[in-house]
Design brief:
Blueprint: H1 2-5, E1 10-14, H2 22-36, E2 39-46, H3 50-53, H4 55-60, H5 62-86, E3 94-98, H6 101-112, E4 116-120, H7 130-139, E5 143-147
Parallel strand pairs: 1-2, 1-4, 2-3, 4-5
Length: about 150
């Protein structure tokens, strides 16, 4: 029954691509997607302090806005290339975002109508805890599979 529930659906794997332990998590999600003939997306969020994303900060320090736009973009493009070279993801199925992990994953799940979010423990920059999972569940009607 579990296998049929996600057959031909959309799955998100939420992981920190800079953490070696995430390779197993991503590989397992790839296997699940293959088995269920599901559409697989990768979500990776770089948690930036709220002050960096607050528009009032730019009024006092406009150089910060330019620096934030340029630095992450080049890093994200390198990360995207690495993911494509390492895992069987299409470029438009890789979502590298900035901001609160739970919020960004929930927004992505809504926007692509995901049926399942696969995640697990990872590096501190992208540490999904049971609390994050609870926040995501409150925001969307999507199942979460938390793997160790």
């Amino acid at each position: 029954m579990f296998n049929q529930r996600y057959k031909n659906k959309t799955i998100i794997v939420a992981a920190d691509i800079h953490d070696d332990s995430s390779f197993k998590l991503i590989s397992e999600a790839c296997d699940m997607a293959d088995q269920w003939d599901a559409d697989l997306h990768l979500a990776y969020s770089i948690d930036m302090p709220a002050a960096f994303t607050d528009p009032t900060v730019y009024a006092y320090w406009p150089q910060l806005q330019g620096a934030l736009k340029e630095l992450p973009y080049s890093e994200f493009e390198h990360d995207k290339s690495f993911i494509i070279d390492t895992f069987p993801f299409e470029a438009n199925h890789i979502h590298i975002m900035t901001g609160d992990v739970a919020l960004r994953v929930a927004e992505l799940a809504k926007s692509i109508d995901a049926s399942l979010i696969v995640t697990g423990k990872s590096h501190h920059k992208f540490h999904i805890t049971h609390n994050h999972a609870k926040q995501i569940l409150q925001a969307v009607d999507t199942d979460i599979l938390f793997l160790k």
